[in-house]
Amino acid sequence: MVLRLTRHEACRIAVTAQRLAADRPGDVVEVLEELAIVNIDPTAAIMPSADHILWSRIGWAYEAGMLKTAVETDRTVFELDGFFRPMSALPMMLPSMRAWPSPQWQKHRRWLEANDRFRRDILERLAAEGALVAREIPDTSQEPWPSTGWTNNRNVTQMLEFLARRGELAIAGRRGRDRVWDLAERVYPPDVPVYRLAEAERMRALGRLRSQGIAREKAVAQPVEPMDVGEVGVPVEVEGVAGEWRVDPDALAALNASNGAFEGRTALLSPFDRLVFDRVRAQELFDFEYIVEMYKPAAARRWGYFALPILHGDRLVGKLDAAADRKAGVLRVAAIHEDSPFDAEMTAAVDAEIRSLGQWLGLSVEGLA
Questions:
Q1: CA–CA distance, 48 with 306 (Å, rounded to integer)
Q2: Mean pLDDT on 94-111
Q3: Whether residue 331 has pLDDT greater than 70
Q4: Residue 219 has what pLDDT?
Q5: Are residues 292 and 80 in contact, defined by beta-carbon separation less than 8 angstroms?
Q6: What is the pLDDT of residue 104?
Q7: CB atoms < 10 A from the CB of 365, how many?
Q8: Chain centre distance of CA 198
Q9: Residue pLDDT, tens place only, 111-153
Q10: Are the beta carbons of 269 and 308 closer than 8 angstroms?
């Protein structure tokens, strides 16, 4: 018999797994270990996405330089494919990295084969000169990268990214927004555990389930990092939601041990936060409709250019339309969109979190009552 959860139970599992309950994690590595991945996005209407995700978990104890230290000095976090990941995840990543490009990536495989001399030029230059940014590496490609989009003829960047996916190179850090590339052996630790591909993929699926708490066996396909978890975990049904879900057994045990107790908090989330990144899941579990509207014309936006989802307890309750004007020293609040009318306690909690965000950013808040 398949277990049944109420919507509240499912939401509490999801919120707790994402470290958004009242008990805050202590540092960057702890957050990465729990979340598995933290999105990197250059849009900084409020602050960079990775900083926002970490601040929403750790709070005032988080400082932006902590992430840079973890990546560049401590080597406890690494960057790959647009995400920060804990270094402990590297052994589970390496089998798929070494098998890339797989047969379905024929275009990439052919281009790498045609440019093997180019590949060796880059490896030799980095070995001799040390870590470099892309513009410091000459284009010696034999065949340009074919694309009708923004990657057309960006041969150096493409080769660097492909070699990082293969585990030959790694991102050693950043100079401003520019990635700094180096030989993987000088960035990644030696003697990491070795897993077979199938074993590593299952371990990654287990990690995704732990970080989400509850997920679908199959979800909308993603080009880099899947959101579904396959057949790992415990099958459950959620009251009022069609279909079957998979739940992390440890999360289920914690729910049963709590006797329904849950201590939540209020949080302002990045649009790229994994609690809301799967828009279908957010709608099904939290009854929360949301999309990022920065690519829409201003007149067509419902919630704003870069509206932040608002979490209150075990509910996603609205969106904050705000922007940081650092030149003026102000966090401007254009609107707080309430999915359902806030009561006095919710209003006070959301306002307090907005003021806390502004204070952490070093900005005064403008637009609150």
A1: 12
A2: 91
A3: yes
A4: 86
A5: no
A6: 80
A7: 18
A8: 24
A9: 999 999 999 999 999 999 999 999 999 999 999 998 756 555 5
A10: yes
Q: For residues 217 and 227, give the distance between their C-alpha atoms in angstroms, rounded to a whole number.
A: 9
Q: Answer yes or no: are the C-beta atoms of 78 and 171 closer than 8 Å.
A: yes
pTM: 0.94
| 3-class SS string, the chain | CCEEECHHHHHHHHHHHCCCCCCCCCCHHHHHHHHCCEECCCCCCCCCHHHHHHHHHHHHHCCCHHHHHHHHCCCCEEEECCEEEEHHHHHHHHHHHHCCCCHHHHHHHHHHHHCHHHHHHHHHHHHHHCCEEHHHCCCCCCCCCCCCCCCCCCHHHHHHHHHHHCCCEEEEEEECCEEEEEEHHHCCCCCCCCCCHHHHHHHHHHHHHHHHCEECCCCCCCCCCCCCCCCCCEEEEECCEEEEEEECHHHHHHHHHHCCCCCCCEEECCCCCHHHHCHHHHHHHHCCCCCCCCCCCHHHCCCCCCCEEEEECCEEEEEEEEEEECCCCEEEEEEEEECCCCCHHHHHHHHHHHHHHHHHHCCEEECCC
Separation CA 39–CA 270 (nearest Å):
10
Q: Are 284 and 243 in contact (CB under 8 A)?
A: no
User: Distance between CA atoms of 23 and 31, rounded to whole angstroms?
Assistant: 12
**Sign of the CA dihedral with 126 first, then 129, 131, and 134 last:** negative
- pLDDT score, position 150: 58
Partners of 133 in the beta sheet? 180
Confidence at residue 153, expressed as pLDDT on a 0 to 100 scale: 55
Q: Is the pLDDT of residue 172 over 90?
A: yes
Asked if residue 332 lies in contact with residue 341, where contact means CB atoms within 8 angstroms, the answer is no
Phi, psi of 199 (to 5 degrees): -65, -45
- Alpha carbon 39 to chain centroid, angstroms: 3
Q: Give the pLDDT score at 151.
A: 54
